Amino acid sequence: MKAIAKIGNSQWETAIWFDTKHKTYLLPLKAEIRKKEYLGTDKEIRTVVWI
């Protein structure tokens, strides 16, 4: 499903997928966004997604 996502000051066009095994949607994060927003496995992330 096409979407627009925003984390911090970064906004990008992307897509989300439904994972039937976990019964939830998955949002891929580009390496560019992870680096720009200093994201790591130990951080809580506030994300806005428009579909």
Architecture overview:
This protein is mainly beta and 51 residues long. It has one domain (2-50). The protein is built from one helix and five strands. The strands form two sheets. Strands 2-1-5 form a three-stranded antiparallel sheet, with no helix packed on it. Strands 3-4 form a two-stranded antiparallel ribbon. Strand 1 and strand 2 (10-15) form a beta hairpin. The longest helix has 6 residues, at 31-36. The N and C termini lie close together (7 Å).
Q: Which key phrases capture this entry?
A:
single chain; 51 residues; 3-stranded antiparallel beta sheet; 1 helix
* Average predicted local confidence, pLDDT: 94
Order of helices and strands: EEEEHE
> Which radius of gyration do the C-alpha atoms yield?
11 Å
- Total of domains: 1
Question: How widely separated are the two ends?
Answer: 7 Å
Give me the secondary-structure topology.
Layout: E1 2-7, E2 10-15, E3 17-19, E4 24-26, H1 31-36, E5 47-50
Antiparallel strand pairs: 1-2, 1-5, 3-4
